[in-house]
Fold:
Amino acid sequence: MQLRLSLRTLVLSVVACATALPSLALAQNDAIKIVVGYPAGGILDALARAVADAYRKAGNGQAYVENKPGASTMMAVMEVARARPDGHTVLLSHSLPFSIYPFTYAKLNYSPDAFVPVAHLANTPMVMSTGMKQPYKTVHDYIAAVKADPSLGAVGIAGLGGPSQFGIMEMAKNQDIKLEAASYSGGPQLVNDEMGGHVPLGMDAAGAQMELYRAGKIRFLGLGGTQPVGFLPGVKTLHEQGIKGFENVNVWYGAYAPKGTPPEVTAKLEKAFIAAVKDPALKKNFEKLGLELTGEPAASMQSLLDHEKKVWGPIIKESGFKAN
Structure:
């Protein structure tokens, strides 16, 4: 409970750095609506409000955030897919509705092709961790322990059907060990069980673990992806440590517009959103929440989406996993 309150306090402090945004009722006709598939008070909501505030302060017009949680963020995705392609409605989302859900859901109520990328906004580093009660100082220690005792092969994750689950599957195959993804309802529950010794290992977003890591209550064994993270000095990627399977295990947030939005309109949004997340003070504030602000153009975002689809499609098919 204390972890949840502390994280919420950090999120609220970041949001408080932005001036109060206009309400839905006060929004002007030329306002942009930023749709988020999570409730107010979370990290993506904080990012959306910071972007909207920066958009307004830069003189681009009014902007407000609409929270539309539900159906693994697909309620928000569907709302933007139905919106007029005039640049007034933008989705802020992780990449899963475009890179993974098409392979895990038998039927989607939207087409991933109904969107165009606007800008890559942030990375959420994924971290493999363990409780301080455990003897594993490195990921190789853990692999050796599982080989000696297969009952230790449970790896906690915050929900099935995401990159972490499939990374664990690939790691098991490459290391010739048996691992099973143990699903938790959220990050706080997972790290609590790690600290209590109820699950030997976990893989989750850095933000859900940062406070306990800084307090010396959990140990970070490695990062997903292939690039180090500036605010986690000394924590190597699993790739650097010779562990295959996690090269593409990362979660990132981007902005999307409905397909058919005029190129000059998406270009204006791209420029404004990138400028927002490039602000040094904002970047520093979000690092406290475990979020690495980026600010990359639509073209590189599209290349990343195409790459992720190529990577995850065959892996998910081999796994046989279905979300519904």
Summary: The CA atoms of residues 118 and 310 lie 21 Å apart.
